[in-house]
């Protein structure tokens, strides 16, 4: 079973209520189109970072890693002084400098090799090429769930909704790699629906571009004892590890691990602000500061880590119970559970920024697909509108970084609760219906 088999009847899933019979749908689509127009008007004249006038912030970090590899200095990939020199030489023509003097390349070594071919191009052109790949990965996700003609009203409507979602816009604007994870999770979902766990395992390897975003799904599959999937994931991971080792050597891998450990404890260095993260970790750090506990920075990090681990374990166990009761890959209830794990993975991620929320695109398609099958599509549309508006507006309204992060984190928790309750109800009644 592949993508075509999932929606073989050609029925649109996202906001599938006919436009002329749903005033709410009309208003929401008008809102989405207005957002796209607003983004287009905002773009021109932006200095770096600014789409599409040059390579913006986050892409500069990937490009820096690629340039260091291209210049034959891969063994010094995680030398922050070298990164700073290379990056600043790239940004000086744009008159731009990052907070702290550097936006570090902190991805696994093989990611730098991935961006090395793009580093042959000037920063601006490399940025455009990468965004082209990103758009194709987004459209792959849309096409998975909306079949029929590419120019059909259903496909265009779904595409407008997706590209008006602020995390998608921000990810493209910043040249981020979050869409690789969206692509990886979509491929893994398709493989699991076809009961091809080996393919799903290899697909998840793509998620190692940002390991923090697939920690929860991989841990879930481990607890569910999906050994075939985990074996292929492990083999793929070993292959990527070998590539990384050949690229940076043993000392380079040690430097990468050291950098990750240091960044986890950075409180206000080089743009790292835990309280700005729109997830569980950001909420805990913000609450700790709000209650003004009088401890040193080191003690605060330790206590916050303990609270985060305890809350993470509790949430993970609850979601695991839901998955145990609903592991029927060909069922629509499985779609809902996969949506839950996507939302849960974001909420529990050690690092999460606004553009990473683009993964909710996949969750949205799965939610509406489930409610469409159940015959309660308005409920699915309501959840889509809540997630889209609730996450987009805090960014558009210009809320402070901490307040915005808390609003989005609370909304993620609410969505996880709504979907988890629905999926848990299915598990208790054991009413899964296979496709």
Report on this model:
This protein is an all-alpha fold and 435 residues long. The chain has one domain (3-429). The model is unreliable at 1-21, 48-55 and 431-435 (pLDDT under 50). It is built from 18 helices and no strands. Helix 3 crosses helix 4 (80-91).
Please describe the topology of this protein.
Layout: H1 3-6, H2 23-42, H3 57-70, H4 80-91, H5 109-115, H6 123-145, H7 153-164, H8 166-173, H9 178-193, H10 197-205, H11 215-223, H12 227-265, H13 280-290, H14 297-325, H15 332-348, H16 360-374, H17 377-396, H18 401-429
Helix pairs in contact: 2-7, 3-4, 3-5, 6-7, 6-9, 9-10, 10-12, 11-15, 13-14, 13-18, 14-15, 14-18, 15-16, 15-18, 16-17, 17-18
Descriptive terms for the model:
435 residues, mainly alpha, 18 helices
Biggest pleated sheet: none
Mean pLDDT: 82
Helix content: 55-70%
Q: What global shape is seen? A: globular
Number of strands: 0
Q: How many helices does DSSP assign? A: 18
Percentage of residues in DSSP E strands: under 5%
Uncertain segments are 1-21, 48-55, 431-435
The computed structural class is: mainly alpha
Helix and strand pattern: HHHHHHHHHHHHHHHHHH
What is the number of independent domains? 1
Q: Gyration radius, to the nearest Å?
A: 21 Å
Distance between the termini: 11 Å
Summarize the structure.
With 435 residues, the protein is mainly alpha-helical.
């Amino acid at each position: 079973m592949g993508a075509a088999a999932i929606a073989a009847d050609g029925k649109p899933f996202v906001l599938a209520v006919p436009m002329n019979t749903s005033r709410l749908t009309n208003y929401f689509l008008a809102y989405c189109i207005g957002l796209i127009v607003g983004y287009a008007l905002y773009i021109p004249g932006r200095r770096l970072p600014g789409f599409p006038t040059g390579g913006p912030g986050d892409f500069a970090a990937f490009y820096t890693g690629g340039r260091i590899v291209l210049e034959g200095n891969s063994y010094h990939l995680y030398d922050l002084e070298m990164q700073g020199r290379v990056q600043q030489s790239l940004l000086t023509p744009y008159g731009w400098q990052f907070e702290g003097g550097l936006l570090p390349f902190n991805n696994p070594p093989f990611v730098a090799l991935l961006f090395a071919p793009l580093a042959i191009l000037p920063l601006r052109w490399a940025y455009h090429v990468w965004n082209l790949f990103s758009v194709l990965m987004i459209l792959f996700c849309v096409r998975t769930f909306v079949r029929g003609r590419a120019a059909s009203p259903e496909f265009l409507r779904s595409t407008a909704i997706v590209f008006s979602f602020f995390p998608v816009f921000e990810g493209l604007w910043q040249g981020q790699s979050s869409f690789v994870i969206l692509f990886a999770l979509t491929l893994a979902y398709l493989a699991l629906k076809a009961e091809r766990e080996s393919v799903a395992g290899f697909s998840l390897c793509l998620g190692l571009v940002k390991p923090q975003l697939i920690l929860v799904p991989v841990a879930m599959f481990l607890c569910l004892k999906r050994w075939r999937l985990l074996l292929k994931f492990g083999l793929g991971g070993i292959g990527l590890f070998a590539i990384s080792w050949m690229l940076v050597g043993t000392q380079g891998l040690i430097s990468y691990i050291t950098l990750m450990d240091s960044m986890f404890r950075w409180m206000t260095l080089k743009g790292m602000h835990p309280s700005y993260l729109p997830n569980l970790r950001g909420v805990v750090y913000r609450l700790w500061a709000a209650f003004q506990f009088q401890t040193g920075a080191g003690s605060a990090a330790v206590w916050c880590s303990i609270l985060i681990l305890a809350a993470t374990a509790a949430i993970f166990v609850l979601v695991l119970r839901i998955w145990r009761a609903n592991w029927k890959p060909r069922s629509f209830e499985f779609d809902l559970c996969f949506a839950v794990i996507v939302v849960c993975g974001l909420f529990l991620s050690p690092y999460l920024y606004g553009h990473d929320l683009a993964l909710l695109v996949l969750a949205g398609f799965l939610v509406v697909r489930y409610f469409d099958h159940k015959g309660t599509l308005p409920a699915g549309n309501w959840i889509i509108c809540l997630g889209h508006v609730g996450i987009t507006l805090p960014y558009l309204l210009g809320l402070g970084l901490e307040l915005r992060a808390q609003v989005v984190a609370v909304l993620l928790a609410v969505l996880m609760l709504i979907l988890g309750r629905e999926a848990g109800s299915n598990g208790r009644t054991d009413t899964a219906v296979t496709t």
